[in-house]
Description:
Elements: E1 10-16, H1 35-53, E2 60-71, E3 80-91, E4 94-102, E5 107-119, H2 120-134
Antiparallel strand pairs: 1-3, 2-5, 3-4, 4-5
Amino acid sequence: xxxxxxxxxxxxxxxxxxxxxxxxxxxxxxxxxxxxxxxxxxxxxxxxxxxxxxxxxxxxxxxxxxxxxxxxxxxxxxxxxxxxxxxxxxxxxxxxxxxxxxxxxxxxxxxxxxxxxxxxxxxxxxxxxxxxxxxx
Length: 136
């Protein structure tokens, strides 16, 4: 599966910051784009790169395994974010990406993200077995 994934492949994606993606502790009302939300958008950009360019089969997808990201600047609700992902290493089913997020003024985040390509039925069977064992 990973043998057809190519280092150097890229994807860009634009999203608008929603009020559900903000912190809630800084001050009353809408706050700033949260770090977990930024990371989730970075992960989804990487996932979509793989699904659209390399693993279109419905029974295959990818899951995140490593995130090492810096959140560099605050971004308000309603701002448009440009997300970029680039494959920098392919090791069988393990794919490493450089990720970056920017608004119109600043680079707001950057880092490394790793995903592993999975077969969903096999992954689910293994997960269900774990559920069974945990409930005993």
